[in-house]
C-alpha cells in the first residue's frame, strides 16, 4: 500500500514559499526607496552647488563694479558667506538717510539683486541693520532731517535697513520684493574682535540665501 502524500507538509512548503516572496518584495522596496533617497540627495547637492556658483559669480561681479566706480570703501564683501556689508559711511551720523554717493552705489546693485531674486523662487535676501552700543540720549523726531524717528538703537538699525532695502528692491515686483526681508538688531551683534562702541559696528549687512527646492516644489515644476 502506497503512502499518501502529507497534505499538511505541502501546504507548509507553499506558505514558506509565499513568505519568501513577500520578504523579497519588501527588501526590494526598501532598496528602491534608499536608491531614490540617494538620487534625490545628489540632485539636491548638485542644485545647491550650482546655485552657490551663481551667487559667487554675482558677488564677484558686484565687488568689481564697486572697485571700478571708486565705491569700494562703502561696501564690504564676504563672498564665502554670501554677504555684503554697507558700511557706516553710507549713512549720515545718527541718521537713516543714505548719502548721495551711497545712493548711486546701491542703485547700481539693484539690477544684480533683481537677477538673483528673479532667477529662482528658492532665494531670499535679508537686510539687517546694526549699530554701536552708544545709547540714544534724546529721541529723534525730525523725520525730514533723519529719514526716521527713533528713541533707541534697535529702531535706528531697522530704519537704516529699511532705507537700504528701498534702493535694493527698485527693480523687483511686489511678489519678488516679499523675499527681501528687513531686520534691526541694534547693538546686540557687534563685530568680533572690536569694541562694541567702535563705529565699524554701525552697518547694514545684506545676506543672500538660496536653498534647494522641496519635494513638493520639485513635483510642481515637472
Labels describing this entry:
6 helices, single chain, alpha+beta, 222 residues, 5 strands, disordered C terminus, 50% helix, five-stranded mixed β-sheet
Description of the structure:
This protein is an alpha+beta fold. Helices cover 50% and strands 13% of the residues. Strands 1-2-5-3-4 form a five-stranded mixed β-sheet. Strand 1 (75-78) and strand 2 (83-86) form a beta hairpin. The model is unreliable at 213-222 (pLDDT under 50).
Set out the fold topology.
Layout: H1 7-68, E1 75-78, E2 83-86, H2 100-118, E3 123-130, H3 143-146, H4 153-168, H5 174-177, E4 180-184, E5 203-210, H6 215-221
Parallel strand pairs: 3-4
Antiparallel strand pairs: 1-2, 2-5, 3-5
Radius of gyration: 29 Å
Helix/strand structural class: alpha+beta
Runs with pLDDT <50, length 5+?
Answer: 213-222
Q: Numbering strands along the chain, what is their spatial order in the largest sheet?
A: 1-2-5-3-4
**Residue share in β-strands:** 5-15%
Largest sheet: 5 strands, mixed
Level of helix content? 40-55%
Q: How confident overall, as mean pLDDT?
A: 83
Overall spatial form:
elongated
From the N-terminal CA to the C-terminal CA, the straight-line distance is 71 Å
SSE order: HEEHEHHHEEH
- Counting DSSP H or I runs of 4 or more residues, the number of helices is 6
> What is the number of strand segments?
5
